[in-house]
Description:
With 442 residues, the protein is an alpha/beta fold. It has 16 helices and 15 strands. The strands form three sheets. The protein has a seven-stranded mixed β-sheet, with helices on both faces. It has a four-stranded mixed β-sheet with strand order 1-2-3-13. It has a four-stranded antiparallel β-sheet with strand order 11-12-15-14. Helix 4 runs parallel beside helix 13. Residues 114-116, 119, 148-150, 222, 226-227, 255, 257-258, 283 line the site of pyridoxal-5'-phosphate.
Amino acid sequence: MALDRKTAPNDLNAFWMPFTANRQFKKAPRMFVGAKDMHYTTSDGRQVLDGTAGLWCCNAGHCRPLITEAIQRQAAELDYAPAFQMGHPIAFELANRIIDIAPKGIEHVFYTNSGSESVETALKIAIAYHRARGEGARTRLIGRERGYHGVNFGGISVGGIVNNRKMFGTLLAGVDHLPHTHLPDLNAFTKGQPEHGANLADDLERIVALHGAETIAAVIVEPMAGSTGVLMPPKGYLEKLRAITKKHGILLIFDEVITGFGRLGSAFAAQHFDVLPDMMTTAKGLTNGVIPMGAVLTTPEVHDAFMNGPEHMIELFHGYTYSGNPIACAAGIATLDTYREEGLFERAHELEGYWQEAIHSLRGLPHVIDIRNMGLIGAVELQPIPGEPTKRAFQAFLDAYEAGILIRTTGDIIAMSPPLIISKAEIDTLIGKLGDVLKNLK
Ligand SMILES: Cc1ncc(COP(=O)(O)O)c(C=O)c1O
């Protein structure tokens, strides 16, 4: 008998699910079988309002026609072309389209397939860049506590989320970390950028003094730290980081895997904060999350440092089988078309005030110890249950799912980042239902 795959997976054992409490899930599975615009459909036929744009990636909402059609068309026309020593036109077209919306001063695109790969790529380019310029001793990489830069070895080395690091040995050598910027005593319930904490960037001077600038290749930070629980950069912080890195000849990498493609109301956070890094890592919203794709964006200074030596020689010994995959490129172009035609970055900017007031209306509800927001992103931090960290927020996540909204939790923080097509009425529904969940939470 043919199984109805939509509703009845036969056995849940084989699939070892990522970043999931597998045993809990398999006892009480939560399955999505369809999606359209702002909603998922569950296997038991319910509609769930997407408060997280999938995993911070479906910025244009779900099953959008331009993207679906572009993928179908491309799959029938040129399914795959070798990524090395061969090209195909839409890979170049997409790169130009990305540069059109990138900050002035960013001019080159290196394709990857995920945020994690973008991070590894950017870190490797940073080290190789200095070597190409005759500064081969610059190999150290500086990340930040609580940073999330994906799950590969470079990314978890510069990252600062302890659970993502502690099971995996000694990681990369020659890595140091800036302090995180979460100052709840000073900044709790801030709307937008917090006032306090710019001075935390000065810690980079201490790290430089400790190791010597001539040993440091790059500093990588998320301009707004998402996965750790939505931490906004304090006012003046990113500007300081830029000034100090520049002063010491250190590259600055913004990990824009979440902030890229409209989340803060500009194409990129670099534009939102008016701070130009040397490289930006992207993924997620590049293809609306529909097809795996990432990209590292660089300045001409970084790119041009490699463009020497004999012309028949490969300049950068790095790349992936699927770099610039035609179907991913088609999805990317259609995604950028959708953002542009529907003015979605501007829409995120316009909705910011409404979103801010809505999410801050949860202040005063049980267990809420902080609320933070910017663009169409926000977090509600809960007081952990003593001795049982993460349990309270996870329960909120389960209750929210039952109530018909998808939220995300990390530690005891609830993070939300809805598709940029969300309406005011849907913001009211999302926040209203979350409020009900919090009121009834133990
Ligand atoms: C800032 C940042 N960098 C990198 C990544 C990793 O991306 P991926 O899961 O596509 O490898 C993420 C994912 O959430 C992210 O938020």
